[in-house]
Automatic annotation (TrEMBL), chain A:
Protein name: NADH dehydrogenase
MF GO annotations: iron-sulfur cluster binding; metal ion binding
CDD domains xrefs: TRX_Fd_family
Residues passing through the membrane, by range: none
């Protein structure tokens, strides 16, 4: 059972981690969250990303959201931008793919090219 | 979506609010199985809209959004359709500079009624990448009530961003567990007797 006491302990742990990581740029993971993205399952993608990042103890990643990208037929879309690296857009992402993206791209640094459409 | 959920419609409405510049959202859901009543509302402190725009909001593909991004204009028409399918009604109140209120009321017991669904996931998702967004969420089930104010959570975090993945995971589980307990009628940390 989650409690506010547990949140206090989590805060202490995160404060210590923030001190270690201070000044280092974060990897940015952006999920398109327009009506089309939401209808296609973008919320499940966000929760899957969060859960897998926690499971794999992934640090230094910010999950953010944006509106419709104009590629409604490719939704849900997930864009990953590693500091100093290329921006990669994954398409037709679901919960399973989101977990795999965390493992392969964020943890192992390997782009899953067959799931991507655009690179900028 | 595999199965229509009211929580996903709420997410869509709230996303509109954020894109309209809202920094604070009040999301309220009330369900009463005995009174056969269900109500949801999303109230924001965004830019608001003139009356003539509000009248057109239910027109499919009408949007007030501007800029380079693509706008679809289907969020509110889809919700209206969902609400009316189950015998309910939906209203939008807005005024320039005074924010917007979207409310929907419908019978609780209806064959076509979409379930509320993962509202905790909706709240956590709204906060992802929106560290400065304040959400006040109130859920009332058969007269028993729970609420969550992100300002209280943020104060407790003492500088740790609210949208840190571990915090969002905690928040989602915390809300889900309290919602389950609320349905079961037990005592719980963030719930209290209504009134």
């Amino acid at each position: 059972m989650k409690s506010l006491d547990e949140l206090d302990k989590l805060r202490e742990k995160l404060q210590a981690e923030m001190r270690i990581r201070e000044g280092q740029p974060d990897t940015r993971v952006t999920v398109a969250m327009g009506t089309c993205g939401i209808a296609a399952g973008a919320r499940e993608v966000v929760t899957a990303l969060l859960e897998e990042m926690k499971k794999r103890n992934v640090k230094g990643v910010t999950i953010t959201q944006t509106g419709c990208a104009g590629l409604c037929h490719y939704e849900p879309l997930v864009e990953v931008e590693v500091p100093g690296g290329e921006r990669v857009t994954y398409v037709h992402v679901d919960g399973d793919k989101a977990r795999e993206i965390v493992l392969e791209h964020l943890v192992n640094g390997q782009i899953i090219k067959e799931w991507t459409i655009l690179k900028k | 979506m595999d199965m229509e959920e009211l929580a996903e419609h709420i997410l869509d409405i709230a996303r509109n609010s954020i894109e309209a510049g809202a920094t604070r959202l009040t999301i309220a859901v009330a369900e009463d199985t005995e009174e056969n009543y269900c109500c949801l509302s999303v109230v924001d402190n965004g830019a608001g809209m003139a009356r003539e725009l509000v009248r057109r909001l239910m027109d499919p593909f009408f949007t007030t959004k501007s800029g380079k991004k693509v706008k679809v204009g289907l969020g509110l028409p889809l919700l209206k359709d969902a609400v009316e399918r189950c015998g309910g009604r939906m209203e939008v109140h807005s005024a320039p500079g005074r924010g917007t209120r979207v409310t929907a009321e419908f019978p609780y017991h209806h064959l076509d009624r979409a379930p509320l669904g993962d509202i905790a996931g909706t709240i956590a998702t709204l906060l992802a990448g929106n560290n400065h967004l304040d959400i006040f969420y109130r859920y009332n089930f058969n007269g028993r009530e729970m609420y969550l104010d992100t300002r209280e959570i943020r104060a407790r975090l003492r500088g740790v961003p609210l949208d840190t993945p571990e915090v969002l995971i905690w928040l989602r589980q915390y809300l889900s567990e309290n919602e389950e307990i609320l349905h079961g009628g037990e005592d719980y940390e963030i719930a209290r007797r209504a009134g």
